[in-house]
Amino acid sequence: MNSTDGRAVQAILLRHGQVAHHRSDVGLTDLGVAQSEAAGRWFAEQGVEIESLLSGETARTLDTATAFAAGYRSVADSPELPDPTVSFALRNPDLYLGGHRVNIAEGAEAIAGQAPRISPEDVVRSPFFGQLISAEERVGYWLEHPNPPGEDAHAVARRIVSFVRSLGDGAGRAGATIVAITHSPVLRAVRLGFENVYTREPPFLHGFSLIAGQTDDISFSLFETDTGDIPATSRPGSGFEEP
Known about the structure:
With 243 residues, the protein is an alpha/beta fold. Helices cover 34% and strands 15% of the residues. The chain has two domains: 184 residues, Phosphoglycerate mutase-like (Rossmann fold), CATH 3.40.50; 57 residues, no CATH class. The protein contains eight helices and eight strands, in the order E-H-E-H-E-E-E-H-H-H-H-H-E-H-E-E. The strands form two sheets. It has a six-stranded mixed β-sheet with strand order 3-2-6-1-7-8, with helices on both faces. It has a two-stranded antiparallel sheet with strand order 4-5.
């Protein structure tokens, strides 16, 4: 699985495990925990040595990293795995409402709850967020929006590119593999940036491999984790579908 050339650094960006909803910062469902543990076991069974296990700061990404590590370590003779750590780069898009950073969420109440002194009615009246909450596909609406109040998809993709390039800084990281647990909007923005493809929700614990070498070039490819008998999608078919 390691496809680095001995000098390059590979970042494997994975979506978190299943959650019950996106109305608030909730942890994983039981299935989400099982998905994450299965992914960790699969990496260990493949003999992948992970130099760092990183995650965003949300409950769902933290839970995913914790369960992934437990699954990885449960495999006999698995390589040593450092404890998960939070990376600010793996956060959701920075969007602003009433001077406050908010995440894409389900419904006006969920968005208003992130911004002091902002009511659900304020959310509905907002040109961007009012359309976001009524969109058939919220992340898709943000992904295609030319001027959201904060980071657009291209800005998020640039953020991740800078993050991946920085992974090679410091001694002893040549040839390293880093696993990074993040969110669907981030993954979809990255694919748009590299392939100009608008994709739907990726499966849980699936994502992309980005390999940064000695030059500024970064190679990009889909990365599909084998979670065995535990489903990684909530519906049949590939989660890497285009709209």
